[in-house]
């Protein structure tokens, strides 16, 4: 039997890089959509790339954009993937208030362009949509697959559209299309302007004497932070199920931003109070106060159980950023893998 073929949008992002790694390790041929940029934007997947002229090449990259529907149709018709993972999005909640229209076009309408591309190309494939806990917004925790949505940002509203249009294509066209409703998940590959990575990079720089302070916004928000490498395993499991369905992935634990900050600084032997300053520019016009997920459906139906808890994750990320700084900016590619699912993890206790 020939290798399964997957197509990933957002392959250059945090999740795309872990997912590509996972699928390659399972013997898939992986195709990724990348945006043309004037600078290189593939640093998270460079370690996976083999020149396509080489016989062992299993990862192939194609230029395109979620705003270009015709390109998506022709790519899918040409590639005929068995599985499609739609991870591309303008994914920053704060930025979505600055760029609401662009966020709607990419994070919302981009998903229907992908679904239409599947339909119009006439291929039979399984489709994963990267839905988000931000859709729950103001609805208090615990949040599960049956919790009402109340988005609090242009990003959250766009993701609600994508969620429903994915469900609609499942019902209308009998497509194997699923929503993974993922709570925050982080890693050493997390974008530098998200809270966790901003903090752990600052800890490393402060520890090294390169920086004195870091400026943050709301410290009271509660989040359910998991480890991204474990979450991509859950995405894959959703597409291997007998029937298409929607699943929450979360650790089920809630910590405040302050908790994450305190643990990260303490891990490096620093007192956060001496280094964290407030800047109102990091507040959002509307905040999501508390997200704590109930992932019991994914546990029962997919056997998915996360192993890295949020405070272990904070320590893991601090260690990675300290190491990256010591290597003078050389990208720190973590090989920490799912304890019982792959390479044994070297997760700090
Ligand atoms: P990132 O921000 O790290 O990656 C986003 C990816 O989308 C990048 O590859 C980016 O490309 C690509 N992209 C952005 N706009 C376009 C476009 N118009 N056309 C094509 N590609 C585009 O996100 P994550 O990896 O953290 O998240 C993956 C997905 O999961 C996103 O949809 C996100 O909204 C969602 N999600 C994430 C959660 C998390 O906690 N990480 C939780 C729940 C949902 P480029 O590199 O060129 O910028
Ligand atoms: P979030 O992640 O909005 O939950 O969306 P982010 O890390 O940006 O914020 C988490 C919480 O920290 C507070 N905060 C700050 N946030 C940032 N970025 N920078 C700061 O300086 C700062 N200070 C305090 C925020 O107010 C917020 O409460 C992420 C994204 O990955 C989405 O794509 C994804 O869908 C959701 O997680 C689930």
TrEMBL record:
Its EC number is 4.2.1.47. Pfam families: GDP_Man_Dehyd (PF16363). Keywords: Lyase, NADP. It comes from the Bacteria. Residues 7-315 form the NAD(P)-binding domain. It is an enzyme of class 4 (lyase). InterPro entries: GDP_Man_deHydtase (IPR006368), NAD(P)-bd_dom (IPR016040), NAD(P)-bd_dom_sf (IPR036291). It catalyses: GDP-alpha-D-mannose = GDP-4-dehydro-alpha-D-rhamnose + H2O. NADP(+) binds at residue 213. Its cofactor is NADP(+). Catalyzes the conversion of GDP-D-mannose to GDP-4-dehydro-6-deoxy-D-mannose. HAMAP family: GDP_Man_dehydratase. Belongs to the NAD(P)-dependent epimerase/dehydratase family. GDP-mannose 4,6-dehydratase subfamily. This is GDP-mannose 4,6-dehydratase. It comes from Gryllotalpicola daejeonensis.
């Amino acid at each position: 039997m020939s290798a399964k073929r997957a197509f990933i949008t957002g392959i250059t992002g945090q999740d795309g890089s872990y997912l590509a790694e996972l699928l390659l390790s399972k013997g898939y041929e992986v195709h990724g959509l990348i945006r043309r940029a004037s600078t290189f934007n593939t640093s998270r997947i460079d370690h996976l790339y083999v020149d396509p002229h080489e016989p062992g090449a299993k990862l192939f990259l194609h230029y395109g954009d979620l705003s270009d529907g015709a390109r998506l149709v022709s790519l899918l018709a040409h590639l005929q993937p068995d599985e499609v993972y739609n991870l591309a999005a303008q994914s920053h909640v704060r930025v979505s208030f600055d760029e609401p229209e662009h966020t709607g076009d990419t994070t919302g309408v981009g998903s229907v362009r992908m679904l239409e591309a599947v339909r119009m190309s006439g291929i039979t494939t399984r489709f994963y949509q990267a839905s988000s806990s931000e859709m729950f917004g103001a609805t208090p925790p615990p949040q599960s697959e049956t919790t009402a949505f109340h988005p609090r940002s242009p990003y959250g509203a766009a993701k609600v559209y994508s969620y429903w249009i994915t469900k609609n294509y499942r019902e209308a066209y009998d497509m194997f299309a699923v929503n993974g409703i993922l709570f925050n998940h982080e890693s050493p590959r997390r974008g530098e302007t998200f809270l966790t990575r901003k903090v752990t990079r600052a800890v490393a720089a402060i520890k090294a004497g390169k920086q004195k302070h870091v400026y943050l916004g709301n410290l009271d928000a509660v989040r359910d932070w998991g480890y991204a490498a474990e979450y991509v395993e859950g995405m894959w499991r959703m597409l291997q199920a007998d029937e298409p369905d929607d699943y929450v992935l979360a650790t089920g634990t809630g910590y405040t931003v302050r908790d994450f900050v305190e643990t990260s600084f303490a891990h490096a032997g620093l007192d956060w109070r001496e280094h964290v300053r407030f800047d109102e520019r990091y507040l959002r016009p509307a905040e999501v106060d508390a997200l704590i997920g109930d992932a019991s459906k994914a546990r029962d139906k997919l056997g998915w159980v996360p192993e890295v808890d949020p405070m272990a994750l904070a320590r893991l990320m601090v260690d990675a950023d300290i190491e990256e700084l010591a290597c003078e900016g050389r990208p720190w590619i973590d090989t920490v893998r799912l304890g019982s699912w792959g390479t044994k993890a070297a997760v700090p206790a």
